[in-house]
Design a protein that fits this description.
The chain is an alpha/beta fold. It is built from 23 helices and 27 strands. The longest helix has 20 residues, at 138-157. Bound molecules: flavin-adenine dinucleotide (FAD), NADP nicotinamide-adenine-dinucleotide phosphate and iron/sulfur cluster (SF4).
């Protein structure tokens, strides 16, 4: 009997001549933080091994510098000495237990290095780094080329199947290729031949050192998305030179880190940038890898079937689910734990120099520490609350062999994620609930919906353990007029769809205040489609020039005003008491996107506010000692939350073994990342 492959293009092998890749899936480079941890390489080996076991064709490691100046931070990873090889061997040996290939990424950060010894083509400081780089001398440039070749050779000795040379995202090689950062007048600056010389000489030197049978991927910046970026003609010219210099594959690089266009956040439409790889397909013969916001096998398959690329790079989706490829191959893509693009546990951690993990999969990068062993004695466990905490606990506990029943008073599972998924740009949150629903059914967890639990009912049912994941209730405020009909909670706005006027004040500018502002500014229940599912409109809104008339593929301000048809028709004030910048506490890598979105929508963000009263006229506030009336139709309260755990004490008193997780435990600074991790940690030991 022959079975047809569910994803024939994605799962097809790729013949590179001297070697074959098992499929068209490349796990993109991600720094995890384990690289620098004491004993981190054993954990890193377990991390990569799980992905190899999960069926991925080719892995690219996190970036490793070829020399000290190129390190991302003072103690960032470097491969330049023979004694560095041994620890890398742990990784390659672990991966090679499976038919997966692995390439080491060589990354010289240039002026993005977070230390005072940074170097660049010219002495031009980056807006996202406090350190000003020194301009490299010609001798140092030649030394850097040798360092790349030396590192590549050491990578080969460490058992890697190849290397990826990082030539995009605004790192050193990219800094050389663009006039934005390359002001040199010698043979390393000026014309495109001179600007790309470092990249091309590096590829040639590496090829000469490692021989023919070694993969060289070059990550080429196909879209710089910054002023002073390259023209399409320059990018194509360079791609051809990269091919001629001996690269095996070209990977697509999108946007410098300092670009003011979101490139991987959850609000970026899926596969938003594959068009640029497709454009390049007409220009070179070697296989091209496309990338950015591709997170399901269906999307990946379509890109390949449409001939837009030869391979698909996905990075964060492999944090979210190590078994992505095997599940796709088994036609079980609805069992994949999908990356929702939140950046909360991965990139935000890396920028804070913490170990990366994943909001939806807390096991990522903790493979040797967070382990769910099968239980010897199965317990009957009641879980009250089917928000992220209750759902995650139920799945992990049931996987271990416990008999789990989950209760929620609502008509559907999901808790606050059902609110979050309705925010424009957070459509991906649907996927997490789809995943949990499927897992509950596969693991035979009994789900009781429309089922408000009381202490008495739980005591009578006589469970071995009760887990309270009952979440939070919105905070009530002590402001004169708080009971006025103008006052609404965020739940009334998003969950209950109360009709909201054209003039609105939002009290509280945390994550939820921002989301409510986006919701009201972008559509506010009108049924208008979110930009995240309208790639063309999204591009115009963020100023991306698909016709590539301008260098860096950016629209000019005038072009953007003409192209962006997205309109807003509400007056919104977003208020907070703190005198600091509104939104300062948002995610490191996404906060600027939320702020820019609201600025584009004309939302007035006001810090240092004292709330005086709410009346028929509106909301009276005081700023810098001066009172002012905001004549608004509605005042929406997004001022944080309190734990909801009325059941807890009575259960303790009745000697029931009871546990609190998620918002029910601590509401302050709660997010789904903490709720899910805490649930997993309890499930691992209960
Ligand atoms: P909840 O999600 O609140 O779930 C608790 C559940 O318990 C509810 O379903 C409730 O019905 C049920 N329940 C309560 N009492 C009983 C009872 N007696 N009987 C039966 N059932 C009961 N977090 C992020 O990390 N990233 C984000 O981008 C993000 N965006 C958000 C956007 C919005 C608009 C909102 C509102 C929240 C957002 N959050 C986000 C926060 C995140 O959703 C919460 O941190 C998370 O849902 C908390 O999970 P939980 O399981 O502890 O509680
Ligand atoms: P939050 O982030 O703690 O924000 C609460 C806001 O209310 C703050 O702006 C606070 O600022 C204000 N506030 C607090 N007490 C107040 C009071 N007594 N009177 C008036 N204002 C008060 O909480 P949240 O917005 O409710 O979000 C809950 C959690 O969900 C967050 O911790 C967040 O991590 C998560 N979330 C995350 C995202 C995301 O995109 N990552 C999105 C949504 C939610 P002042 O004290 O300065 O006024
Ligand atoms: Fe994806 Fe968020 Fe997990 Fe990062 S933390 S891998 S963005 S789901």
């Amino acid at each position: 009997m022959t079975t047809t492959s569910p994803f024939p293009n994605l799962l097809a092998p790729l013949d590179l001549g001297f070697t074959q890749l098992a499929n068209r899936v490349l796990m993109g480079s991600m720094h995890t933080g384990l690289e620098e941890e004491k004993g981190g390489f054993a954990k890193l080996a377990a991390f990569y091994k799980a992905r190899a076991k999960g069926g991925v064709g080719l892995i690219v490691t996190g970036g490793v510098s070829p020399n000290a100046r190129g390190r991302i931070a003072p103690f960032g990873s470097e491969l330049s000495k023979f004694w560095h090889v041994k620890k890398h061997k742990q990784v390659t040996d672990a991966v090679h237990e499976y038919p997966t290939k692995i390439c080491l990424q060589l990354l010289h950060t240039g002026r993005y290095a977070y230390h005072p010894f940074s170097v660049a083509p010219s002495k031009v400081k980056s807006p996202i780094n406090p350190f000003t780089p020194k301009a490299l001398s010609v001798r140092q440039i030649k030394g850097t080329i040798n360092d790349y070749a030396n590192s590549a050779n050491l990578a080969k000795k460490a058992g890697y199947d190849g290397i990826e040379i990082m030539g995009s995202e605004g790192y050193l090689l990219n800094q050389f290729t663009c006039v934005k950062t390359n002001h040199r007048t010698d043979e390393w600056g000026g014309s495109i031949d001179n600007r790309m010389r470092l990249s091309i000489e590096t590829i040639k030197a590496v090829r000469a050192k490692v021989g023919e049978n070694f993969i060289i991927i070059f990550r080429l910046s196909m879209l710089d998305l910054v002023e002073g970026g390259n023209s399409w003609e320059d990018v194509v010219y360079m791609a051809k030179a990269v091919e001629a210099a001996g690269a095996t594959l070209i990977n697509t690089g999108i946007g410098w880190h300092e670009a003011r266009v979101p490139t991987i956040a959850t609000s970026v439409p899926r596969a938003a940038f594959t068009w640029v790889t497709e454009k390049m397909k007409q220009e070179v013969k070697i296989p091209l890898v496309t990338t950015n916001r591709i997170n399901t096998p269906e999307v990946a398959e379509k890109i390949l079937a449409d001939g837009q690329a030869d391979m698909i790079s996905m990075a964060r989706p492999f944090l979210a689910d190590a078994d992505f490829v095997n599940k796709a191959a088994a036609d079980k893509s609805n069992e994949i734990n999908t990356c929702i693009g939140c950046n909360q546990a991965c990139l935000d951690h890396v920028f804070l120099q913490k170990r990366a993990s994943c909001l939806v999969n807390p096991v990522a990068c903790y493979e040797t520490e967070l382990v769910f062993g099968k239980v010897e004695k199965s317990k009957r466990i009641a879980v009250v609350g089917a928000g992220p905490a209750g759902l995650a606990f139920s799945v992990y506990a049931a996987e271990r062999g416990h008999k789990v029943e989950i209760f929620d008073r609502a008509k559907e599972i999901g808790g606050q994620f059902n609110i979050a998924k309705q925010i424009p740009g957070k459509e991906e949150f649907f996927e997490t609930l789809r995943y949990f629903k499927k897992k509950l059914s596969l693991l035979n967890v009994t789900v009781h919906l429309n089922s408000e639990q009381s202490t008495e009912a739980l005591i009578v049912a006589n469970f071995d353990e009760v887990v309270l994941a009952t979440g939070i209730s919105p905070r009530k405020l002590d402001i004169k007029g708080f009971d006025h009909e103008k006052v609404k909670t965020y739940l009334q706005v998003i969950r209950d769809k109360d009709v909201i006027g054209k003039k609105v004040a939002i009290i509280g500018a945390g994550g939820i205040g921002f989301d409510v502002a986006v919701y009201l500014a972008e559509k506010g229940g009108t049924g208008e489609k979110s930009l995240s599912v309208e790639p063309e409109k999204w591009m115009a809104h963020w100023g991306v020039d698909r016709s590539y008339q301008n260098n860096g593929a950016l629209l000019s301000k005038a072009q953007m005003e003409k192209a962006d048809k997205h309109s807003h028709d509400r007056d919104i004030y977003l208020l907070q008491r703190k005198p600091t910048k509104v939104g300062a506490g948002l995610g490191k890598t996404t906060g600027w996107i939320h702020r820019a979105t609201l600025q584009k929508a004309g939302v007035k963000m006001m810090p240092g506010v004292t709330y005086k009263s709410i009346t028929d006229e509106g909301l009276t506030i005081e700023i810098n000692g001066e009172e002012q009336l905001l004549a608004v139709d509605h005042v929406i309260i997004c001022a944080g939350q309190e734990p909801q755990r009325e059941l807890y004490q009575k259960l303790v008193d009745a000697k029931v073994s009871v546990h609190l997780i998620g918002g029910a435990n601590v509401a302050a600074e709660l997010d789904a990342k903490r709720a899910i991790r805490q649930a997993a940690e309890l499930a691992a030991i209960i």
